[in-house]
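We recall that each integer encodes one residue's backbone shape. We quote one record:
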Amino acid sequence: MRSTSPLFLLSALLTLGLGCASAPTKPSGPAVLTSQETTVLSQGITEAAVRYRAQVASPAPAVVERADYELVSDGQVVKTGSAKLDVHLVPGVPADISFEERAPYVKSAEDLARLSTQGGTLLLALRGTLVVRSGDQEEKVPFAASRAARVPRLPTVVVAELDGARYSPEEVQINLRLGVHNPNPFPLKLEGMTFQVSVAGKSLETGTLAQADSVEASATGVYPVEVAVTKDTYGPDVKALISKGVLPYGVTGELTAPLMRVPYSLSGEVKLNVSR
């Protein structure tokens, strides 16, 4: 029987050992989120801009190609989209990703009115999947993060200032300042505010104010209206009306903005000052 030499056995063992060393184990496992958040960059009465930020880690070289996402407001999907990212991942090192979306978060005038009455806060969320590619393999990593935002509230129209100056027994000048109160912690963009001013039941002045204007957060925008009460505007009974020293008035109209129509009706009395 032929015997195997010790030298041959040693050589075979060394060959096997070298073979194992030349084929290291390839890292395996899915990419994971190590942190994530949604922030509200800006907010209007019907739309908002939000940003999603996260850190992604992978055990192998990979690329976060894109994010397929939904913007969710108050539990309802208001927009879907896809954001190209192209972020390269180094094994074991978390990488930052982010994208932004601006969209209406209120779908209708009815939704806006409901939210204004409801008050409080609502959740704005970005959710979806991150598409990660490693070699010829593609995986989808789900994500979701939300942030509370103040519920939008409808503005109100008020009489900010009012006075009447009697120039003669047949002429009075009424100076009316209409205020638009914005109760929101963000600016309110307006399309316009119509008005019709009546004195003692007769319409004397109509028009539109605040066209393409904006009212600052938690502030009141003030818009002046001048109304002349004369024989030409009111009629032959103007002298008897002015002699009473008090003029009943009414103001009606509508405040408008995207998805917003706020009718208003104000009334009262103007006490006449002495002649100027």
Q: What stands out?
A: Helices lie at 6-21, 109-118, 231-234, 238-242.
